[in-house]
Amino acid sequence: MRASLIQIGVDEGESVESRRRRVAALVREQSGADLVVLPELWTTGAFAYEEFTAEAEPLEGPTYEVMAKAASDAGVWLHAGSIPERDPDGPLYNTSLVFSPSGELAAAYRKIHRFGFDKGEAVLMGAGSELVTVRLPGPGSERGTTLGVATCYDLRFPELFRGLVDAGAEILVVPAGWPERRRSHWTLLAQARAVENQAFVLACGTAGTHAGVPQAGHSIVVDPWGEVLGEAGAGEEVLTVEFDAEKVATTREQFPALKDRVLGLGVPRR
User: Fold this and answer.
1) Taking a C-beta distance cutoff of 8 angstroms, is the pair 67, 99 a contact?
2) Which segments of 71-197 are extended strands (E)?
């Protein structure tokens, strides 16, 4: 499988409409990849809280339309990162969109864990409640493979990823707007989620500065043994990595740690 992570630089002087066009062109340039991944909230910037309401759009809004066409033009599976979604019957959501190579919407995921500790995203957006996986056919694997979808702050909650693995996930895709001051956590957690779930992790962040918050960049691809197969730098960059999706099955067969999970332990006695 060939995966391209587009680490978008968010320039506060660039309009959302202009960025959509520019990113669509970058997606089209990845023709030949099996999977392309964009970061979290790249239209506005993940920390540009004041822009969420102003730039929120319906699920099938401008970003949906532009990214669906870009996926179709490139002939790739596209995880188009996330947008501030305006639900006409509810709150805003931090919603990821996944498109097939024909430009059809394959899945939408509303971020479950909202960051902010009672401010920012945590109060401006509603929480999702459903785990989302997407089944990809070959050529990445003769039997195909399954993506598990998570977003940024979700990376800190291993139980979400266990749920994705139980649902069949073999490649865990994590778009993010991760701050530079916690970059060491970003790398550590991406490797931890890969090792403990014996899965590939594709974690795609942003570059630039969101509302005064410098971004970590350093998008990363990790294999099921925790080996870093590729890592971006701090600026805008396309990180392309080729890997064998079958390694998940062979790893889980050769070192079947997931079979030794003990569930339902409950609360310790005092």
Assistant:
1) yes
2) 77-86, 92-99, 105-110, 132-136, 145-149, 171-175
DSSP conformation letters of 175-235:
E---BGGGHHHHHHHHHHHHHHHTSEEEEE--EEEETTEEB----EEE-TTS-EEEE--SS
Beta strands at 220-222 and 213-214: parallel, antiparallel or unpaired: unpaired
Q: What is the pLDDT of residues 111-131, one digit of tens each?
A: 999 999 999 999 999 999 999
Provide the sign of the torsion angle of the four alpha carbons 248, 246, 35, 131, taken in this order.
Answer: negative
DSSP 170: S
pLDDT of residue 142: 64
Identify the domain containing residue 26 by its residue range: 2-258
Question: Does residue 135 form part of some domain?
Answer: yes
Q: What is the CATH number of the domain that holds 67?
A: 3.60.110.10
3-class secondary-structure state, position 265:
coil
**Number of compact structural domains in the chain:** 1
- Tell me the C-alpha distance between 183 and 207, whole Å: 12
CA 77 to chain centre: 13
Residues known to be catalytic: 40, 111, 152
Does the residue 48 lie in any domain?
yes
Residue 228 forms part of a structural domain: yes
